[in-house]
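Tutorial handout. Part one gives the primary structure; part two gives the three-dimensional structure as tokens.
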Amino acid sequence: MKGNKLSVLITGASTGIGRACALYLDNEGYKVYAGVRNSEDFDSLLKAGSDRIQPVILDVCEDEDVENTLRTILKDKDNTLFGLVNNAGIGISGLIEATPMTELKRIFEVNFFGLHRVSQAFLPLIRKNKGRIINIGSSSSFMSGPAL
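Part two.
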């Protein structure tokens, strides 16, 4: 599969599962658009990956970042966007009575609306190329403990 023309966009690729997925798919021969939110993570992925990995500044809460990423991918005529991995996400812990509404709104902005924003923007390309969307979540979606 090395050197194929398929590409994948991964959100939340700065660290953890997103970064591991980006480097794995890069190693498997995919062109990887790795969504990060800062230049340090951008540079780190450039150093860690091959010439197939293309970090992009992508905050899933920012329409402009999503639009810029879409333009970047559309300019690349040598690749076919086949996959979207929605990995960006945040979590908090705390008692409901002590958790400010702004923190709860931020979670929904990233984890729900961000996923929707990115999926909606890239779905036409994914559909055209008969690709797949993968949503990565947390085990916290299925179970919770005290103050979670």
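Part three, for discussion. Residues 101-128 form the longest helix (28 residues). The CA atoms of residues 57 and 129 lie 24 Å apart.
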